[in-house]
Specification:
Blueprint (H helix, E strand, L loop, with lengths): L1 E4 L1 H11 L1 H17 L10 E4 L4 E8 L3 E9 L13 E7 L5 E6 L1 H19 L6 E5 L5 H12 L3 E5 L3 H11 L6 E4 L3 H5 L4 E4 L6 E5 L9 E4 L8 E3 L1 H5 L2 E4 L2 H7 L12 E2 H5 L13 E4 L4 H18 L3 E3 L24
Parallel strand pairs: 1-6, 7-8, 7-10, 8-9, 10-12, 11-13, 12-16, 14-15, 14-16
Antiparallel strand pairs: 1-17, 2-3, 3-4, 4-5, 5-6
Helix pairs in contact: 1-2, 2-3, 2-4, 2-10, 3-4, 3-10
The structure holds nicotinamide-adenine-dinucleotide.
Nicotinamide-adenine-dinucleotide (NAD) binds next to helix 3 and strand 11.
């Protein structure tokens, strides 16, 4: 039997653990897996593009577990009452191919992306960072905000979205959190002024320039989340030119990240090398650092392992006959259990 986790189950895991503990625990899984990066069989995700968005498959495996995520990105979906990003995924046993877990990954993607952003910022942002500008206040934004609050000690969020209702929603959702000040601004330029960290998490199927070079101050760390697809960027190339840039998996980021604008020899560092102590992160306090995040399959592999363990502990999920349970594995036909007449 395969365990199936719905969005309700994942919401329950988050409520039972509390979001702060959930993010911390997820961070542990991410760090453990990033530290054993060379053990994974990796490939850039496979994308099906259309005029309205993209649908992607994200596979990865080590010698024991295989996972994939199905995920879309459709920035105009809100006009149809649908989220921009929706996802589900599978964790399977490499030795047999048996799917162990089939789970929702929409909520989980928001949590794993936020935890990954905070993981990168722990190595790349100045340790005395306390303020973060959050540009784009849609579905991912509260998760980013809370990951940086709980895991990085961010105490002030400076908010901007071209849709004021999105910012109002974020303020409604997060007001009352002790030690977290929320301030909204009328433009990106105003919101980012003086911030230690800038997170861009906008959705537009365009070569956008949310951040331009004159907005960037020495020592800033930029967590670029929304530029994650060919033809979809957030950072002006001048921002990348003056920064030390970090990516997840270079072959995928060259196609999808903000660095798609740069020549093929533009220098980047894969984040796992910093976690393993094989490359330096931030070199000095006035350096500008960029985490050009696109979302890599390993983050979902870690998240699925996290969900599997939480579901076992909390006895959540439904056992589903996703594949047949057979007395004689060669007798698949018996599964039909049909009267003789129905075979004709
Ligand atoms: N890197 C990753 O791992 C990862 C993971 C999940 C989502 N994403 C990306 O993050 C982005 C946000 O996802 P979401 O689910 O929050 O989408 P969403 O549609 O819910 O929210 C996006 C918000 O960006 C705002 N926006 C658009 N253009 C803007 C601009 N020029 N200035 C300020 N705000 C602007 C929109 O008004 C909207 O409120 C998407 O591009 C998505 O593809 C990346």
């Amino acid at each position: 039997m395969t365990t199936v986790l719905s969005t309700h189950d994942v919401a329950r895991i988050t409520r039972e653990l509390g979001l702060a503990r959930c993010l911390k625990r997820l961070l542990g899984y991410l760090e453990a897996d990033f530290r054993r990066w060379p053990e994974f069989d990796k490939t850039p995700r496979v994308a099906a593009h259309s005029s309205s968005g993209v649908i992607e498959l994200m596979p990865i495996a080590d010698d024991r577990l295989y996972s994939f995520k199905y995920v879309n990105g459709h920035p105009r979906n809100f006009l149809r009452g649908l989220p921009t990003v929706m996802a589900f995924g599978v964790l399977a046993d490499v030795a047999t191919g048996r799917p162990e877990l089939l789970s929702e990954l929409t909520l989980t993607t928001a949590m794993r992306t936020a935890a990954t952003s905070a993981m990168a910022a722990r190595y790349l942002a100045r340790p005395d960072s306390h303020t973060m500008a959050l540009i784009g206040n849609g579905a991912q934004s509260e998760f980013q905000a809370l990951a940086f609050h709980h895991l990085m000690g961010i105490r002030e969020l400076r908010l901007f979205d071209i849709d004021p209702a999105a910012t109002e929603k974020l303020i409604r959702n997060l007001s009352g959190i002790p030690g977290l000040r929320l301030r909204s601004f009328g433009s990106t330029a105003e919101a980012v002024r003086g911030a230690d960290i800038i997170t861009t998490v906008t959705a537009d199927k365009a070569l956008a320039t949310i951040l331009t070079p004159e907005m960037i101050e020495p020592g800033m760390h930029i967590n670029g989340v929304g530029g994650d697809c060919p033809g979809k960027t957030e950072l002006h190339r001048g921002v990348l030119e003056r920064a030390k840039v970090f990516v997840e998996y270079e072959p995928q980021s060259r196609l999808e990240g903000d660095i798609q604008q740069m020549p093929p020899d533009f220098e980047v560092t894969e984040l796992w090398r910093v976690l393993r102590g094989e490359a330096s992160g931030r070199d000095h306090a006035s350096q500008v650092t960029v985490f050009d995040s696109v979302g890599f399959a390993l983050e979902d592999f870690s998240a699925l392992r996290f969900l599997r363990d939480c579901a076992r502990e909390l006895e959540l999920g439904e056992a589903m006959a996703l594949i047949p349970d057979m007395d004689d594995p060669k007798d698949l036909f018996a599964q039909l259990a049909m009267p003789e007449m129905a075979l004709a």
